[in-house]
Amino acid sequence: MKNKLSDKQIIKSFLYTVEEYKRFEKSIPTEKNHLLLDTYTEADYIGIQTKLMILRKYSYYRDLVYIPTVIESAKKMFPVLGYALGAIKKKYDEVEKNQLQSISSEGNKMTLFEMQECVLYGLYLHADEDKIIKLLDLNEALYFSMTRKFVEELEVVLLELYELLMTRVDEKYERKKRKKHL
């Protein structure tokens, strides 16, 4: 849902939403040392699924904080960061390109993006029956492995872009903090 925001507003919105993401990330740590098809705990499953829901806006081309859009805005505002932003964009493109596909027992192919849609709209937001049926046809361990790989790789790109932009931004959106009365 892109609109006519300025490059500065796009970057500030990105920084603010990443600040919020980092709050979740601290509260829902997930196992970082594993092989692609390792087993997982229920806490890891919930953590990765939660992160997936929050991270979606950074990898969905119609969202304001879609990483390539943020990078283009940053290039305009901070030309000196062009090389570093190009390197981050290359990493992001690799994350997108390396998404695995799943083929169900019924022979249906599904990309990770399609799986995200099924999880979000089938399980968490709307109980869309068609999407639930598609998910029931998938091997949960394979789906989780694909999701975990995507989330972990996207998170690296997201936080790297955030840290780079924080070196150049004078102000960001911040919530007003309530003063604590003793």
Produce the secondary structure layout.
Layout: H1 7-27, H2 42-59, H3 67-77, H4 82-97, E1 101-103, E2 109-111, H5 112-124, H6 129-136, H7 140-166
Antiparallel strand pairs: 1-2
Give the N-to-C terminal Cα separation: 44 Å
Helix content: 55-70%
Low-confidence runs (pLDDT<50, min 5 residues)? none
Oligomer: single chain
The fraction of residues assigned to DSSP E strands is under 5%
Q: Please provide the ordered H/E string of secondary-structure elements.
A: HHHHEEHHH
How many strands?
2
Q: Cα-atom Rg, whole angstroms?
A: 18 Å
Which word captures the global form? elongated
Discrete helix count: 7
- What's the story with the biggest beta sheet? 2 strands, antiparallel
Overall pLDDT = 86
**Major sheet: order of its strands?**
1-2
Structural class, from secondary structure content?
mainly alpha
